[in-house]
Fold this protein.
Amino acid sequence: MENIPERNKFFLILYVFFLVGIAGHYTESFYGLMLTLTPYILLLMGIFVLIFSGVFRSSDFMKWFAYTYMLTLLLEVIGVKTGMIFGDYIYGDVLGFKLFRVPLIIGFNWLFVIAGAFSVSSRISSNKIIIVSLSAVFSVLFDYLLEPVAMKLGYWEWKDSIIPVQNYAAWFIISLTASAGLVFFKSKNEKEYNLFKNTNMFLHYFFAQIIFFLALNFR
């Protein structure tokens, strides 16, 4: 716990990476390289956040991490196959290696969006219901910002290029459920939960991605 302020300084590296990514996406000669590197950068940044936040030392948080990853990946697989969860969509090849037509990095990114939204919400209120509800709302708003850029970059494609309301409803329910899992994690181990709450790495990763997708909306 005493090293959290020192570790928190590393958040600046997140913004540097994403600012370089923005510049690369706006430079024609580097655009293809940026797309190729996308899944590797997401993986690298996620590992970076886990290490420098210190939460990888928390067994309860890592259990939440593993369960949420498996849940979101499973729902994505069902969603792509049936269209029943998010609507009719398919993934492109930009996000890397796939399992049952779903990129493995997707579950990883779900985790950091939800954890980032939760980190923001927990700084707004200490009420569990408000934190969980705001986390779901912020996650949906993140996806709303992400969707047009993701289609433009070839991350995925919606049927007839129409993003259904069903997608945002699914995002809300899934994020709400996963955020409730983080509250349960708090009730089990207050000390380890405070390790997660007091780090700013998840919060800044959330905002760094928002800046990235906002910038690419104008490309």
